[in-house]
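Review session, final week

We close the course with one last complete record, chosen because it touches almost every idea we covered. It is Efflux transporter periplasmic adaptor subunit, a protein from Woeseia oceani with 415 residues. Go through it on your own first, then we will talk.
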Amino acid sequence: MALRLKKVIPIAILGSLVLVATLIKMNPPSTPQRNDFSGPQMSVEAVTVTPQDYRIRLESYGTIQPRTQSMLVAQVGGQIVSVNPNVRDGGFFEKGDILVSIDDRDYAADVRIAEASLADARQALAEAEARTNQAREDWARLGNNGEPSDLVLRVPQLEAARARVLSAESTLEKTKLDLQRTKIRAPFAGRVLRKFVDQGQVVSQNAQIAEIYATDVVEIRLPLRNRDLPFIDLPEAYRYSNAVENVGAAVEIESELAGDTTWQATLVRTEGAIDETARQLHVIAQIDNPFGSAGDGQIPLKIGQYVTARLAGNIVSDALVIPNTAIYQGTYVYIVEDGLLRRRDIDIAWQNDAEAVVAQGLEPNDQLVTTPLGQVTSGLRVSVIGEEPDQKSAAKRRGGPDGAGPVGANRGARQ
């Protein structure tokens, strides 16, 4: 009986397995199929990239500095007897104005003494000339033959008398010059930065009176980034043999201190060396007549005032200009191509705080995505906000779910 069971049980198990397999094959399990989602997964805003002539505008910063700045010093010593009321910190003056007067009585006396000395020297010269003429006549009257010697004619005494006249004239000229220098005059129209003396003070020769600067022109030293240099004309072609100086780009100057007031300047020269600290090239902008508009209610410029300069650069033809908000990590953008989101690596030729000029990576008529995107994958199906229905249908026919090519088919796209 046991032997029979051992033979029957395996046959029964094998038959059961065959039966189950037959039933599964005849009635296979059915799993519901999920339809592919063929619609867009997100909506984005996009703009068409269009070539345009674009004016590069560079931005820089600097401080107002005078082109002509001098230390006014006394060329003669003495007591200050009067000071021009405008000789105060910030005071204006015109060329030739008497700024400070020094007591001139001693110098006037020196002039009179020098005049007397000159008169004596001229008298001595006249006597020496008369003696020389008399000696020549005596030589001829005595019947001497030949030309008389210089000693006979008293030529050395005559030359000495002439030298004393020249010396007396120079002394008189110097004393008159010292007398004139007691009136310290303005060498140019300008403004006072600092005053160091006042009325009643006794000053010595070469004493500092005031620090002044000319108001006809002020300058701003502006650093330029190295990548901006190809996009601006620098005034470096000036030659002294030319009659006209090479003037560079126009510059607009503004300052927070002056509100909406702006000043027009021009680039006049470029420094001859790269700044060792910043490793940048500096250019000099010049403002003509910077205080001429002060009477119109505008705030006049101040020396040392911090200003913003906007320089007119070159015009780039057929430039592809895009907003900085559409650029990610400074190296790539997203475009919409055949209804799919594509990533494009770009090279930036120039960039400011708001927009960038693209050198490579974009083509005209590309649809640039301007919607800020997070972590997205290239190849994602998207729809453009505001796109007309017929445009959507055309995009679907070109690259819909049935006809869309692989994600990597776009040249230059990064998966």
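Two points worth writing down before the exam:
The two ends are 73 Å apart (CA to CA).
The first helix runs from residue 2 to 26.
Good luck, everyone.
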